[in-house]
Amino acid sequence: MSLAPTPSQTVGPFYGYALPFAGGGDVAPAGHPDTLVLHGYVLDGAGRPVPDALVETWQPAPDGSRAGRPGSLRRDPVTGRVIGRDGVTFTGFARVPTDADGHWTVRTLPPGGVPYVSVAVFARGLLRHLYTRAYLKDTADPLLDSLEPDRRATLLATAAPGAPGTHRFDIRLQGEGETVFLEFS
What we know:
Elements lengths: L35 E8 L10 E5 L14 E3 L6 E4 L7 E5 L5 E6 L7 E7 L7 E6 L6 H4 L3 H4 L5 E2 L6 E3 L2 E2 L13
Parallel strand pairs: 1-10, 1-11
Antiparallel strand pairs: 1-6, 2-5, 2-7, 3-4, 7-8, 9-10
């Protein structure tokens, strides 16, 4: 008799259920004049888009505070399910799935005190999620300064010409141009 694999015997993806939520990428309060857009693609080792990844970002508020503001998520009073953000509160946290083309987008505010947004990637085939940083400008920084120029470039978001406040940050999971990933113990 053959038994179906259990979740502990498979790699997923299981991220599409319960983790993404409406407005998950809308970190900046609605209509805020300093809103910036950070977007890109999650790509596999062959450069193909990963359509079922999940990208999380964390960052300090523009004033540099890191405490965040709880209570921005609104829930359906009947089911308790998350129905979106309140559109007013800045928390510094985003969670967005990639679309069918592997594309993701976060609308946020400039991070205060650091020149980067912290990023985590969850995707099929990964037993552990990956951590990296999306630097919004090339600057003196201990991590960037420790890297060779070609590796350093994988952490730099590219400002979109003619679109102020828009930055592209592609995440390459492996292969040529693989994004620098960080290890925390």
